[in-house]
Amino acid sequence: MASNSKPQFFLFSSLLILLPILSSGSLNTVTGHGFSIEEASVHDIQLAFKQNQLTSRQLVEFYQKQIHRLNPILKGVIEVNPEALHLADKADSERKSKAPGSLSGLHGIPILLKDNIATKDKLNTTAGSYALLGSVVPRDAGVVTKLRKAGAIIIGKASLSEWSQFRSFYVPNGWSGRGGQGKNPYVLSADPCGSSSGSAISVAANLVAVSLGSETDGSIICPSSSNSVVGIKPTIGLTSRSGVVPISPRQDTIGPICRTISDAVYVLDEIVGLDYNDKATIKASKYIPHGGYKQFLKVNGLKGKRLGIVRKPFYNFGNDTFLKKIFAQHLDTLRQESAILVDNLEIANIDVILNIGTSEMTALIIEFKQALNKYLKELVASPVRTLADAIAFNKKFSDLEKIKEYKQNLFLEAQATNGSSNKEKTALQDMARLTRDGFVKLMIKHNLHALVTPYLGPYGVSVTSVLAIGGFPGISVPAGYDSKGVPFGICFGGLKGSEPKLIEISYGFEQATKIRKPPSFKP
């Protein structure tokens, strides 16, 4: 759950010490066979495996060194898997013996998981909170089961906004008690956004090639935009939420955060599909195309696509002529790539939809208590068993977090609810009506494949609530850097199950612009 709170912790003394390290360039990333690991895509890595230019052990060792070198200031990784090198050796052995499935996909590729995604191994699953440190999960999360089956290496857990930013909106984006304050690798004082901040930070800074995040409203799209990486927020139920510390089963979704569209699609292909521990996957599985999603990585993917432009409120840049110019150029690029732009559209009641204090938040507050209590109850062991226990823990141990005053207003509001109520029913009806009469009506009336909106990080006007309340997918792609070097993105959103079209559109845009560049670690 992304928020609009501002960072408060900058650790200036540590920054001054580490600046020479950050600015001195990367490690020696070239293997003995001349393969450069840094910025390598999944396809590049798989090709290097095949040509014996790289091993999974070398890959893991490189990322571990990067984490050791950069994470003390970036705080993108909360915990490293002590079994990662063993898993790498296992992958190398399987590839050498040409075991089934060892020559394609994510086999042997390290992946970082947001620390709300459960792993039944030596890693903790804590949502960034000391309250869950030492808890024992009953099983791997559904998406982790699929990743392990694909041969991916779980290299560790990414930091996040604590409890996926649903403890309080008055805590900075990217901050957690366990992980500290995550930093934007492009401009260290800039907001990394949340809640999947660590997943985006780590991929951007080459601490890992691919990662998973989760989104309830903005938590994949916002950090992806703010850290100049690609994020895919899938249709609700397309990926399993089983074994993920929840906010709302109605809005939560799990998706990839990577440096390129193609890498994100490689991950998406492996994590979608049925999981009988999450009933939503049964209904959503009808959207998965035969042959998977890689077939939609088309350079000419924009050709003939009908793209909607809603100027108000998404293209309101005020007096910022730079942003006006940049996004005018992007729209021109879409036209040049033979997309059909349907301009000056309006979403009915958009101001009501974007007011997070109304129906959406009412429902989330009620759903959170029920969903979290269910998750905590199913743990094999845990220091806390209910939301009430977590609240009491925060009050007792607030000194662990090195802040003078514990902040957990959302926890307290959720605890005060009493399960389903007329209030929740009314909120759900309002959201269904707003979605039907707004986004859905717009898309159908104008026969649109996607809505195209700027994403300017946590302080801009965002489309994420429009997508969130309807369970719709969205893809964020790097779109540029402001005058200070802070990244921003562009978001392509569509109706349920429209991932194939969104992948064609976003890949076409990415290949036509190739905007992303490695981070600069500016102070």
TrEMBL record:
The Amidase domain, residue ranges: 59-502
Instruction: Give UniProt keywords alphabetically.
Output: Signal
Q: Which residues form a coiled coil?
A: none
User: Does the keyword field hold Signal?
Assistant: yes
**Out of the domains of life, which is the source?**
Eukaryota
Segment forming the signal sequence:
1-25
UniProt protein name: Amidase domain-containing protein
Where does this protein come from, organism-wise? Quercus lobata (Valley oak)
Q: What is the lineage of its organism?
A: Eukaryota, Viridiplantae, Streptophyta, Embryophyta, Tracheophyta
